[in-house]
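Encode chain A's predicted structure.
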Amino acid sequence: MTTIVDRKVARKYVDLYEENNLHVMYLSLGFGTASNDILDYLGLESTEKAVAFSVLEEDSWKTIKRELEKKLKIDAPGGGIAFTIPLSSIGGKKTLQFLLESQDYQKEEESTLQNTMHELIVVIAEQGYTELIMDAARAAGAYGGTVIHAKGTGMEAADKFMGVSLAAEKEMVFIVTKTEQKKDIMKAIMEHAGLNSKAKAITFSLPVTDTAGLRLIED
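Encoded structure for chain A:
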């Protein structure tokens, strides 16, 4: 789940999520790109945004969606937006337990999105280890990645599920790759920059339905 709201009200959203047992989140700062006319129409006073990334079960999403609409009026003009994207894979059982924490995981059949040609690999790691991650990824066939800074919450859950202590300051690395290369790249990252390394990286992937700008990779 991705949530994008005005920075001034971000704390209310974090509090609501924690009330619903969604403790592990990654927060980053963003800026809106809408024109002044659109901002005025929607009742938005600022383009400064907070972006929160979370992993949750479908049943949890149904509950949180109701809470967002009822308590925080997210569907009102200027309220913000929250949306979900299906995960296609997660790098290890401990990572799954950490991301879902107290949510009840129910294994279901894979969706038809498993047949996509590309995947987005997301790596979340301690600050300062981007090169270690990208060296491992490139050795397994990755061409490049994008890094953004984020602050993690719910890091105390790492001791319970992983037996390690994680800092709150994080780097998130986004890597778009061919689906057939995804497994090798994720495996390489886990082996060289995973929980047993100083990077303490966790990784998962999202299906990409279409791309533009990857012609050289395709060729």
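The helical segments are 10-19, 36-42, 58-70, 93-100, 130-139, 157-161, 179-193, 215-218.
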